[in-house]
Amino acid sequence: MVTSYTLPEGFTDLDVFGLGTALLVEGLLGFCLNGLTILSFCKIHELRTPSNFLVFSLAIADIGICMNATIAAFSSFLRYWPYGSEGCQTHGFQGFVTALASITFMAAIAWDRYHQYCTRTKLQWSTSITMVTFLWLFAIFWSAMPLLGWGEYDYEPLRTCCTLDYTKGDRNFVSYLLPMAFFNFVIPFTIMLTSYQSVEKKFKKTGQNKFNTGLPVKTLLICWGPYSLLCLYAAVENATVLSPKLRMIPAILAKTSPAINAFLYGLGNENYRGGIWQFLTGQKIEVTQTDNKSK
Q1: Which residues pair with 85 in a beta bridge?
Q2: For residue range 16-43, what is the model confidence (pLDDT) as tens digits?
Q3: DSSP per residue over 25-85, as a string?
Q4: Cα 115 to Cα 34: distance, rounded to the nearest angstrom
Q5: Angle at 111 between CA 35 and CA 228, to 5 degrees
Q6: What CA–CA distance (Å, rounded) separates 255 from 259?
Q7: How many CB atoms are located within 10 Å of the residue 87 CB?
Q8: Which candidate, 74, 139, 65, 137, places its Cα nearest to that of 95?
């Protein structure tokens, strides 16, 4: 006898299947691309530089987002969340850690590129390792707070995945959201914007455009901007007045970031792309010495 599960409010069976399929595609594509970035860094000695360690760390965080999306896809195909309330808390925590780490690593890469192209300062291993360790611990700190009562994890509208509960919009949520968003989105965005603006001015002065300086900032805004706006909206208004389908769109957009980041920071990085090609084919190609030179 087949067990029947009630569909989440506002969704049809086709909606749940379609969103589950989108999550699965995002998860598997991002997993493959970032897995290639990680394996290439581990296998190709020339890629193991302090600057590329930031790209490697970003890929690790993005792999975590892909795992989170794949679990959500599996649950969507089941039409229910099979892991209970503790599984929901774990899923929300793991997703939040990797999401916050991914955003801050993008800012770290922007900061490094500023120094590479504007101050000609080369990143040292000690600085790179310290920065990566701090950013992971910083992401873990903010993600652990909802487990301790400051903020809360609960189901997304689809009820097959879990994240920060923005539906209550109470003082507990607002007091957590505002500092968390400031330190984990506003500051990284500002670092990226100012760093790439400085790099763009340097490129115009030298007449050499090494890469598209506007693309990383646009990617951050497209992937994570809608989710940030939804949470900020929930801080001042009742977010449940928005349709469940509309509230799922930001989550789906956010989970496209791992695949986009893999193209932008791995395959789009001339130095890193050469290492990936060597890993796949065994053929070494000559690249310039600049660590983060991108298209």
Answers
A1: none
A2: 999 999 999 999 999 999 999 999 999 8
A3: HHHHHHHHHHHHHHHHHHH-GGG-SHHHHHHHHHHHHHHHHHHHHHHHHHHHHHTS-TTHH
A4: 25
A5: 70
A6: 8
A7: 14
A8: 65
